[in-house]
Amino acid sequence: MRTWRHIKLRTKSASALIKHKANIDRDFNQFCCLNQMTSIFFSESSKNIGGQELQLLEQAVGLKAKGYTPYILCRPGSRISQEAYKLGLNVEFVAFRNAIHPPSVLRFANLVRQHRPVAVVCHSGHDANLCSITVHALAKLGLLKPRPTLIRMRTYQPGPAKAFTYNQMFDQTFTPSQALKDQLLQNGSVLPEKISVLYPGIDFESITAAAALGLPAELDARLNDLQQRPVIAHAAMFRVEKGHSFMLQVVKALLPQFPNLLYVAAGEGETRHAIETEVQRLGLSKHVVLPGMLNPVAPLIKRADVLVMPSSYEPLGMSQIEALGLGVPVVVSNVGGLPETVQSGVTGYVCPAPHAPGALAAWVQALGAVLAEPHKARDMAALGRQAVLAQFGKQSNIDGLVGNIQTPRLGRS
Questions:
Q1: pLDDT score for 16
Q2: Taking Cα atoms as reference points, which of 397, 335, 406, 333 lies closest to residue 62?
Q3: Do 172 and 142 form a contact (C-beta atoms < 8 A)?
Q4: pLDDT tens track for 156-192
Q5: pLDDT (tens digit, 9 = 90+) per residue, 373-390?
Q6: Interaxial angle between packed helices 51-65 and 79-86, expressed in degrees from 0 to 180 and rounded to the nearest 10
Q7: With the CA atoms of 48, 50, 55 and 61 taken in that order, what torsion angle do they form, in degrees rounded to the nearest 10?
Q8: DSSP state of 72
Q9: Please, what are the domains in the chain?
Q10: What is the dihedral sign for C-alpha 88, 93, 98, 101?
């Protein structure tokens, strides 16, 4: 027979259970909210991989160490997805065929609403425009509150800058050099406070460790051949502005002084086939090696006598910074942000860009000096190492990015 005391105890136990369940639900909801608010998207529409894409991965790894949950949004089959998986990063596929590709818009919109990122960091053209347009549209419709911070990593600017893009589409745009920032601000309508310089952060310790790793067998054999010296390394995507064709002219001009010279151009890209044809036409097959993409490229740089960056356009460049970090001499073009990384005659040589008058003679002279006096060149590179370690420390880049990833405000549109 149930007594009033039994009923009272059971009622009290039921109330406690309900209260306990409510506490669990509250804690779970708080956990979910916190987890969403630490998600961050990195978008990249390029299928190939180069300095820009590697920097994206470095940022994602750095933010993961700070408690964020990064997601790499990229095309199916892209090289960056393969590297992201190796680093244990989350990957979500979006086609990114163009800025208003409907399936990509729907896919991205679903991902944003699912993960509620605190920020979307965009890199290439198609993904940047698509992400910005979609986020603004969702916010206007009231489907995305709060709205994530929209950050653009602008590594180059083809043609005049459009004020609307920088003033309205993104909360902040980062350039990798003062030179590129100045280029954007040539349009007086672009708001200066919307553009900031964020020098890339480089993990010099990892680069040093990677430099001790092996290389593909065929390339390793060529570098072990003491009859093929000195070695000029060039690590860049095969695009017209990277100066591969110009370097072939430089190599040909250096052969009378260095008859066993070896030029190794690592990378992939649209102009590689044309460069292969030009190598044959110039009769340089014994002096040129095109090993394709090397990841890491540090083992090649470390074993080179000099690294070159003969670009005709370069917002900053990464390879020459990595080379100096390894104490390897460098020769770079006097364009974009390259002079911000090398002090000519002190930490390396800065020469006229390939399109400038007298460029060929200047490059032949500079490289001749480096290769003829290797001890002096290494002393200059040692000074360059001290400079880049201070200027491009990994932590400064991550801290600068974190400082702009703020918890979104409900009123932001």
A1: 52
A2: 397
A3: no
A4: 888 889 999 999 999 999 999 999 999 999 999 999 9
A5: 999 999 999 999 999 998
A6: 30
A7: 50
A8: E
A9: 32-201+396-402 (3.40.50.2000), 204-392 (3.40.50.2000)
A10: negative
